[in-house]
Amino acid sequence: MTRTPYAYLYDAVRTPFARFGGAFAGVRPDDLAAATLRAVVDRTGMDPAAIDEVVLGNANGAGEENRNVARMAALLAGLPVSVPGTTVNRLCGSSLDAAMIGSRTIETGDADIVLTGGVESMTRAPWVLPKPSRAYPAGDAELVSTTLGWRLVNPAMPQEWTVSLGESNEQLREIHGVSRERQDEFAARSHQLAHAAWEAGFYDDLVVAVPGTDLTTDEAVRPESTTRTLAELKPSFRKDGTITAGNASPLSDGAAAVLLGSAAAADRIGRDPQARIAARGGHALEPHRFGYAPVEAADKALTRAGISWSDVGAVELNEAFAVQSLICLDAWPIDPAIVNTAGGAIALGHPLGASGARILGTLAARMRAENHRWGVAALCIGVGQGLAVVLENEETA
Fold first, then answer.
1. Mean pLDDT, to the nearest integer, of 252-263?
2. Number of domain units in the chain
3. Does pTM top 0.90 for this prediction?
C-alpha cells in the first residue's frame, strides 16, 4: 500500500504590513502579491516552471485584485504562462485556506510544488454601487465600502448575525467576562513583542521590500504602547464598550507567500523543508460568534495530528481583536507565554487575505528558532468560521 505523501513548508515571505492609507496606498494589490511570489522564486533559485500551481487568498476581490488575483500576480511576477493560478476567499482565513488547499493537493499526488499565500489592500478596496433593478431609477443610490465587514446584506439573514465585527466581539466580551484592562494589556504586549522581534532581527528573513516603496518594517507597530496609554482611548463600537482602536487589529495592506512541496521536491526547490503540514482543522458556528471559532478548529487539527495541547511549544493566533484572542487562550490549556512571541496582528497589522500566510510562516520560523517540535497556527473568520494548521518540525523529532 502506497503511503500518502506529506506536504512540507519550504519557505515563507511577506511584505511589511502598511497602515490604511499608508506606505502602500499607491500600490495595487496584484503588485503586492507579485512581489512576494517573485521573492520566493528569487531567494530559492528554483526554476519557476517547476511550480505546479499558485493558490492565493483574498477577502475582497472587488477592485484591482479582481479577475483571479493569483493568476494575475503569477503573470506579473514573471512566472511562466504555463503555471496556473486560483484565488480562494474565506475572508480572514483566505491565505491559510490557500495553504491547506495546497497541502492537500500535494498529499493527493496531484502536485509536487504549490506556491500559496494571499494579499489584501484595504486602502484600495473600492466603493461599490448596487445595480438598480430597472433603468433610470428616480431615487438616490448609496455607495458601499468594501474595505471590511458586512455589505449589501441579504434581508433574509437574521439581524443578530449581521451586526458589526466590533459589536460581535463586545457581545463575546460580555459572555466570557473579559475586562478592558486585560484587552489593553494583551494589546500592549503585542506591540512590545513585535518591536523587540524587529530589533532582534527575527523578521529579517521573513519580510521583503516592495519595489518602488520605502517601507521596510511593519508600519503600525507602536513600541511606546502601554496599558496606561491604551486605557485613554475611547470605545469604538459602544459608548460604554471596551473595544478600541488600540486593542483591535488595524486596517492594513500587505501580501504573503508560502512555498509548499513534497519531500521529493527538495532538489528542485534547492533547500530542505522547514516544517511538515501535520494536520488541518476547520470549524463554524453562529456568524456573530466568529471570534470563538478557532477554539474548536485547533482542537480538531490536534486530534488529527495525533497530539494534544501539552505537546505544543508554539502558537500563532491571529489577533483580530484582543478580546477574541483572550477567550481562545482561556479555552485552550496552554501557557499564554507561548503565543505570538514575535507580536501579533494588533501590532503588525491584519491585511485580511494575507494574515493566514503570515502566521503560518511566522510559526515555522519560531519553531526553528525556539526548537519546538509542534506548533499551531489559527485564526477566526467573519461569518462564523475558524481555521487551524498543525506544523511539525521534524528536526526535533
1. 98
2. 1
3. yes
